Amino acid sequence: MSKILVTGSLHYDIVIHAHHRPEKGETVIGSGCSYKFGGKGGNQAVAAAKAGARVGFVGAVGADTQGEFLRAVLDENGIDNRFVTVNESVASGMSVALMDAEGDYGAVVVSNANNHIDVAQFNDDQLWQQVEMLLLQNEVSEAVNLSAAKQAKQRGIRVCLNAAPARALCAEMQYAVDLLVVNGVEARDLSGIPVNNLSDACMAAELLSQHYPAVIVTAGEHGVAWCEAGDRSESMPAEKVELVSTHGAGDCFMGTLCTSILQRESLGSSVAKANRAAAAHVSRKPTAR
């Protein structure tokens, strides 16, 4: 059975709840705090596993209790973590997220061990056994992503990049990517088109598809647009739900999307399934694990 290989970040997340996010110099009294498994790479791997995919993971953690926790969650979700290295001299990655009463959040990420992923692992043929898709994000260095992507391309494996956070990509990386997925802010940064509605998302997707075989632009409460190179863009509105928290919605979308593609569904059908999964995610109260 084919599987998804995820290369990316693992973070021990501290999530703080408050009425609003503080302004500069302001102290806000919080209403709660929780500790979670996180990192875009880790979250997307878990989402793909929960959607039914076989998943492998390449990353790094510190030799600390946080690293043990992160590896344990991968294990609990049936994710192959043999290629998650334990760094004896650097702490595990972490983030602090502040969630406001409206369900929106801001976060600070400290990469730590995520800056020390061993790229030599990508030369190991065992790593790539039965892999049909490589899933990347931008919370690790482009050098790591490019090393993984080059090996995937040599093996005829599809490369999906969730370019979050947005950053300029070198020509080699652009060439390696088969499917680019960005949100409205990232689409604006990469295309120059402000995404304020679904029409804008379509225009950004069409422009970016001149450089990538396929592009998806998620536009939050407006919906999602996608475009395959040479075609006109398509779109669908967001599902109507009561928002509880947007935290992790994009990662849920990515895991579901890649699993659906791996199951041979069309891009449009996969986007629709991922859109529904993300809508369900934002309407649920986040769990502590």
TrEMBL record:
Keywords, alphabetical: Kinase, Transferase
Carbohydrate kinase PfkB domain sequence ranges: 1-286
Pfam families, sorted: PfkB (PF00294)
One of the record's GO molecular function terms: kinase activity
Domain of life: Bacteria
Transmembrane parts of this sequence: none
Signal peptide start-end: none
InterPro entries (alphabetical): PfkB_dom, Ribo/fructo_kinase, Ribokinase-like
Keyword Kinase annotated: yes
Protein name: Bifunctional hydroxymethylpyrimidine kinase/phosphomethylpyrimidine kinase
